[in-house]
Each structure stands twice: as C-alpha cells, then as structure tokens.
Amino acid sequence: MRDLVVILTALNLEYDAVRRKLTNPRVHLHKRGTRFEIGDLPGAAGRVALALTGKGNQAAGVLAERAVDEFSPAAVLFVGVAGALWDTTQLGDVVMATHVYAYHGGTSEDDGLKARPRAWEADHGLLQLASYLGRSGWTGEISPGVTTPKVHFGPIAAGEIVQNSRISHEAVWIRNHYNDALAIEMEGAGVAQAGHLSGSPVAIVRGISDRADGTKNTDDDGSWQPRAAANAATFAIRLAEELLNQQGEISMDEDNPRANYVVNSSAGTTGIQAGGNVSGSNVWITTRSHNSPSTDLAAELSALRDRLTRERSTGTIDDATYEAARTELDIARKALAEKTPEGNSTFVLALKRLRGLVADVAGVVAQIAALITAVKGLS
C-alpha cells in the first residue's frame, strides 16, 4: 500500500513510544494471530501498521515478512533501543543503519573463531531521505530542556545475545571484526533479511540507551531506555511521514500526463496507455489535462463515488476496499461543505488516503489527482 508504512518493535516500551505518536489506532488481526494496530500519521496522508515482534532476529524476521505479505507497505521500519559500541554516539542519540551485520556467522578453527558475516545494505532511497531529514531537523517533538539528540548513520551489528562488556571474548571479537559498527542489537539482521527476500525497503532505527560496556544496569535502563525509545520513535515517524509525502508527490506527477509524440521507427508494436491517433509509424497521444480546477467539486466527488461503485461491481476493487473508500469520500464531502482552508486541507488528506486504497486502479487515481489539484487551486 502506497500510503502505509510498517513499524516493528521488540519491546513494549518501544511499541508504546511509537503508538503515542499515532492517531486513531485500530486493531488489525492477522489470520495467524499477529496483532497489528493501524494508526494515522499526524503529518502525512498515510498510516502506520505497528506490531510487537519480541526479542531476537528470528522472530523479528518472520513477523517482518508476514507484515510485508499482509500490507505490501511502502517500507518496513524497525524501531527501538540499542547499545553503543564507541564513544562517538551519546546516550539518547539515534543511529540509522547504513547496513546491518549478522555478526554471529563464523567458523571455529584451531587458531580461533573466524568471522563469516552476512550483511545487508540499507535501501538507497530511504537512506537518502533519512540523511536529508537528519540535516534539515527532526527533533521538534523533543521535550524542552533535554539535550538535543543527534542522528548518526553507520553499520549496526545484530546478534543473539545482550552485549554488556568491553573485555569479554565476544566483546573483543566484535570490536575487532566489526569495528565500524556504531551500535549493537538483536533484531536488525532478521528484518533486513526479510526485506531482502520480500523486496520491501527496510530501515533500522535505534536510540542509544546504554554503552554495551558493563555499565548497563536497571536504574540506567529505567532512565535512558524510555528516552532513547522516544527519540528513535520521533525520527522514525518523521521518516515515515517524509516517505509517504514524497510518494504522494511522485504519484501526483505520474497521474498528470502531458501530451506526447511517439515515433515508432521500426516494425513492431507500440503500446499506448492513453487516447491517441496512429498514422503509419507515427503516434500522437493526447490526454485531458488534470491541471484545471473543477468548477463543481461536489459534482466531481459524486462522479468519483459512482466510478468506485462501478469498479466494485466489476470486481476491480473488493468490498473491504470499497467500504474504506466510501468512508474517505464521506470525510471529503463533509470537509468540502465547510468551505474553509481547514476544510480544504481535510479534503486533500482524505483523498490522498483514498488514493492509497485504490492505487492499482489507474483511472480512479487520475480522477482523485484531478480533484486534489482542483481544491489546491482554490487555496
């Protein structure tokens, strides 16, 4: 779904930090029992499907792939806390993985344990967007008086143990073989592999709650874990908003085709996805512009409702999608009747959510894009 991002967490504390940032959360129960909550994003025409995986790469990977299969999301974000491996990151800072090491891969030989890691790179588009967000500011929701956290980009090491030492054999081995890793945790490798296998973009976002150096204790966990989880959730939600807003802009461009002239200079078949005329090997494509504001938005909205009804009757959209689409249309209709800037904004948000529901029906998406453009022309 173009308008939905999946966010997964391992701990209830991390889950609550994300959930507090969503509006109107409602339960979505997977047929195998996984409980998701779907909430609206405050700063984008989109939604988040939130779920708890529990600890460990295996559980996180299984539920990540389940979430991708269930929602076909724009991206999967794993959000939570982690331990810092070096002093370059401070408690409360956020680390987004440029790539994830599954550091427990290896072979044991007479002269020691030899590393055989697996690694997954972060999605290029998500990383570019996150880097932009890190430069332009993302901490608007951080409590006043609290030191402003920084966001760091670098490798994250993911294994199957809680690391809390600088001198243990495992700690020395990790720092020797993965000395560019900024943080260490227990779920990122599973989620990264699930994204790789399913083709879904994945981002691992972690707040630093301890230093993984033997100083981790219950008192510090009680203080720093909530703060680190809240900072990671803030960054992740902003990333989700920016991603869905960006996709909405791309979709608008795609849904407003301009007239084109195509020359087929060799024998063969030319595919045309618009009305046009063909003469010999020359093809003229002309399309109706969607950039002119409608003079009667209510009538256009009614026509859109009729179009959805027809698409349902032919089986192009299913009953559940149709009912959800009707809900968004009702919201848009009421907002339009207000004839205020706030109403126009609500109208646009409802139509963007509707566009996400019917993203695979090109004709309907084009009608929605025309309505969005029209109401923006009135602003």
Describe the protein:
The chain has 379 residues and is α/β, with parallel strands linked by helices. It folds into 3 domains: 4-250, Rossmann fold (3-Layer(aba) Sandwich), CATH 3.40.50.1580; 256-289, no CATH class; 297-377. The chain is built from 10 helices and 15 strands. The strands form 3 sheets. Strands 5-11-10-6-12 form a 5-stranded mixed beta barrel, surrounded by 5 helices. Strands 13-15-14 form a 3-stranded antiparallel sheet, with no helix packed on it. A two-stranded antiparallel ribbon has the order 7-8. Strand 2 (23-29) and strand 3 form a beta hairpin. The longest helix is centred in the middle third of the chain and has 37 residues, at 218-254. It starts with a strand and ends with a helix. Residues 257-295 have low confidence and may be disordered.
Salient structural properties:
three-stranded antiparallel beta sheet, 3 domains, 10 helices, Rossmann fold, elongated, 15 strands, 23% strand, alpha/beta, 379 residues
